[in-house]
Amino acid sequence: MQTISRRVFAALGLAATVSLLATPAVAQTLEDLKKKGEVNVGLLVDFPPYGTTNAQNQPDGYDADVARLLAKDWGVKVNLVPVTGPNRIPFLLTNKVDLLVASLAITPERAKQVQFSKPYSAATIVLLGEKKANIKGPADIKPLKVGVARASTQDVALTAIAPQGTEIRRFDDDASAMQALISGQVDAIGCSTTVAAQINKRQPGAFEPKFVLRQQEMAVAMRPGNEPLLKSVNDFVARNTANGELNKLYHKWLGADLPKMQ
């Protein structure tokens, strides 16, 4: 009897702990954020030029400027909260941030967890390898070691096309995958064209895109069920796409026009 009681209390204690850790997602509206006077926006700082840090070690890049423009448009203060690829959705769902402007590509899997706005940006994901390497398609990567940022869009895209038996090495972020390629730990990596451009600056002529893994559109992410907030974000995206403000920011950071998106 005493043993059973201990088990029951242990089970109740575990349930209580799980309940405390499982923070329920909070629905918000633009009016809620205006009353609060600020918006907490999660963004990457290891994905230049979309997300990076400036000379003062503060978040910067295209996504940071989009978040600042959003806050200005809404008349609230913006708090830029650094996140990583793996923890950005958990940060949103546990109310650590109100929104994600974190280069989050729209995928069916992610759409089950978060609510996406209209796309505000786009990027091309490629397989990047040594210029001399004979890689023309997915079949050629089977004998290779291929790196990718864990839980990223490029991870999903690469995993989908890699032949069975391909050695895929997953790193914490793009910076780690990039370093692995440069140092020879892997033969190729899945990355965005912007990351490929950064590598080319460090090692001119050494690497080149071998083939396209995916064209991805990125959107602002909110917690599910926030229809009023979704409308406010979509209005922001539509208005600042039409008036050219997003294009100006894209040109500032990527040196090209904002791609046409759906």
From TrEMBL:
Pfam families assigned: SBP_bac_3
SUPFAM superfamilies referenced in this protein's UniProt entry, alphabetically: Periplasmic binding protein-like II
Entry annotated with the keyword Ribonucleoprotein: no
Signal peptide residues on this chain, from the entry's feature table: 1-27
Record domain Solute-binding protein family 3/N-terminal: where: 38-257
Alphabetic keyword roster: Signal
Coiled coil: none
Highest taxon above the source species: Bacteria
Gene3D superfamilies for this protein: Periplasmic binding protein-like II (3.40.190.10)
PANTHER family in alphabetical order: ARGININE-BINDING EXTRACELLULAR PROTEIN ARTP, MEMBRANE-BOUND LYTIC MUREIN TRANSGLYCOSYLASE F
Protein name in the entry: Transporter substrate-binding domain-containing protein
Protein source organism: Ramlibacter alkalitolerans
